[in-house]
Amino acid sequence: MDIRPEPFEPPAPIPRTIPPSRLEIIKVMFRNPLELWGKPSYTLPWMQVKFFGQLTTICHDPSLIKHVLVDNAGNYAMQPIRQLVLRPILRDGLLTAEGDVWKRSRKAMAPVFTPRHAKGFAGQMLKMTEAFAERYAEPAKKNAEVNIATGMTELTYEILAETLFSGEIATGTEGFAERVDSLLHNMGRIDPLDLLLAPSWMPRITRIPGRKALKAFRQIVSDTMDARRRKMDSRETVPDDFLTLLLKIEGPDGLTRDEIEDNILTFIGAGHETTARALAWALYCIAESPHFRAAMEEEIDRVLSDGADPVDWLDLMPHVRAAFEEAMRLYPPAPSINRAPIEDDTWTSADGKTITLPKGESVLVMPWTLHRHELYWDRPRHFMPERFLPANRDKIHRFQYLPFGAGPRICIGATFALQEAVIALAVLMKRYRFDVTDSTRPWPVQRLTTQPLNGIALRVSAR
Ligand code: HEM
């Protein structure tokens, strides 16, 4: 007899049954795009709708997604609106670069993100998480509530700062985190002019306050790079961090100095809030699933008492990894992957229907709806990490689960993020137990990432 309790259904907008009016679409787009999607978006293999005058193709059929992201990826550019928002900040960083610059940068940066280098960061990830865990010691004594959303942002920021610069920041670490915060705040904003696809030289009123901050921030990154370069040139010992790795590939076949600077900003922008969101959602869903939490605690205790090297935790802790992957299914940190065909394209489904994807129109691959899609998932709205355990993993189609995207532009930091997440969850759950309280009522909103409105309050206690 199966005595497992009913799986937990975490909060999410109920799919609409009546299409919103034009005015409502605009309001919801600014308030929370996740609330926009109707029943068809969670049940049909693809849809074509007019959206702000653009024909938008929403792709769910895994073979259509493979066509767009992999088989015919060369025909798909980043969507103009995303570029209008991000490019003024990240310039030619990998996330926003296109064409030959992207090709050369991706090739040059591949060695920086090998699994060997990610593993090399495991020690720093462990050290930073252990230091962070101390901050919960006092609240745990009082069984007090902590806001896990801000906590995880601090933790992943500290890990990123350590693996990027090893603490060697030109102005000192003081105040740097606040600058990063303001940068991210500025990054996530869509200005009304962006929606109208106005050219990038037209000033965006909503982003004016961020411009000075961005300039100052770039100056600090630039000074930090110069200081490290001087050290490298004078053959002093330098830390084995991202900054050193990037400066080593400066040159005609690698990256220019400006591109290195752009990529440092990109790593800060793409590489910590994403992981932080997924960690916070994971801790929340785990707190609501005591049965699975018990299996995770048993696994963590066993692996840690064997003294395993943190480099191997990702492989040794399938339950921890499964919980994190399931949290990214329900709350994908990147809820939408947006493209625009460079030339007209067509695709034919297995049952012989052909659709046209016209040049310059909009193509969306949306992990948010794909991961909750009724055609592809059993009990799509429920938190069931068992799906991701090795015995069941093969049942998940490669193109029905896309937290890191797919194809040539797949997330370059995926291994880094997974390793970081498993180390963070293991260290925190070894020491503490997190529980929901009456004030735990998170609500997902789409900004740059899928984030909990007003944070996530969990009670922390010592195990
Ligand atoms: C849970 C954490 C993360 C998630 C869910 C995530 C998600 C994604 C997704 C979906 C894309 C593809 C976007 C597209 O195709 O339009 C992407 C690209 C990218 N990610 Fe991540 N990411 C994570 C962590 C990281 C980390 C830790 C780093 C770096 C340290 C990073 C750096 C990048 C970069 C540079 C790209 C652009 C790659 C390219 O276009 O060639 N990400 N990420």
Task: Give short descriptive properties of this protein.
binds protoporphyrin IX containing FE; Cytochrome p450; single chain; alpha+beta; globular; 11% strand
How do the strands and helices of this protein lay out in sequence?
Elements: H1 22-31, E1 46-51, E2 54-59, H2 62-71, E3 76-78, H3 80-90, H4 99-109, H5 115-120, H6 122-133, H7 137-141, E4 145-147, H8 148-165, H9 176-187, H10 192-195, H11 208-233, H12 242-248, H13 257-271, H14 273-287, H15 290-305, H16 313-316, H17 318-330, E5 337-341, E6 345-348, E7 354-357, E8 362-365, H18 367-370, H19 390-393, H20 414-431, E9 432-435, E10 444-446, E11 450-452, E12 457-462
Parallel strand pairs: 2-8
Antiparallel strand pairs: 1-2, 3-5, 4-12, 5-8, 6-7, 9-12, 10-11
This protein binds protoporphyrin IX containing FE (HEM).
Protoporphyrin IX containing FE binds at residues 94-95, 106, 266-267, 270-271, 274-275, 278, 333-334, 337, 403-405, 409, 411-413, 416-417.
Mean of the pLDDT scores?
Answer: 91
| Rg from Cα | 22 Å
CATH superfamily: Cytochrome P450
Number of strands: 12
CATH first level = Mainly Alpha
